[in-house]
Amino acid sequence: MELEQCFDGYGETAVWTAAHDYEKRIDILSGFAQHQWQVLPSLTLTAGMRYETVDIRVGNYSTSSGAIFITDQPLWIDRSFDGWVPKSWINYELDKWAPWFRDTSLSLGLSRIWRAPDYHGDYNPQGKPAGAWLDPEHGMGCDEDTSVIVDYEFQDKQVIEQAEEVAPDEWTFESVPINAYHRVDLAVSHVLFQQWGTLSDGTLKVYAGNVFNETYEDADGYPATDRTFGIGFSVSM
């Protein structure tokens, strides 16, 4: 069982009033259980389940002027998320096949990916109340030498309020409509080697962002990036 809490506040040296609200911003409660079965002398199956509940408070005002960003929402926007995250792992020992296979095994793991917006930079980036619209990330994970990652994102039609400080303590507000959109990202990674001299975990990754070249705008009203492709290599030392 795990409990995590985070409170707001900038300390006694901050001079603006809003810095001393000391509101609870994040409350996370989670638990995990797993069991292992010896299916065969060389075959082991492990399965587990994690449950997590996340409560966040999204600040809906400017810490410098106190102006409300989303006019039809309260000063603090409360959001709650919860999810079940199953994970499974199967491992086959190769020791009996040949002497040089000693301490060698084949493994495959499958799990659900679920992450709520539980980081301040996610739900209040630069003080903006982005958490009013964010939902948890979903996906599937595969733990093996080769992994395929598909990330799907959907946002329905929104109208946001943009605030701009045109002079000290003088603000202008503009309503910006954002159309609904779907976005799919795809990546394939392969572990080339586990250990090579002083290097370890050499991994090659090929990815495509915005696979279907969806046209949409971000929360600030700027056009999002078109379809992109890339390749990368990472290694630990």
Can you walk through the features of this model?
- By secondary structure, this protein is mainly beta.
- Helices cover 2% and strands 59% of the residues.
- It is built from one helix and twelve strands; from the N terminus they run E-E-E-E-E-H-E-E-E-E-E-E-E.
- Strands 1-2-3-4-5-6 form a six-stranded antiparallel beta sheet, with no helix packed on it. The chain has a four-stranded antiparallel beta sheet with strand order 7-10-11-12, with no helix packed on it.
- A hairpin with a 2-residue loop joins strand 8 (158-167) and strand 9 (170-178).
- The longest helix is centred in the middle third of the chain and has 4 residues, at 120-123.
- The mean pLDDT is 81.
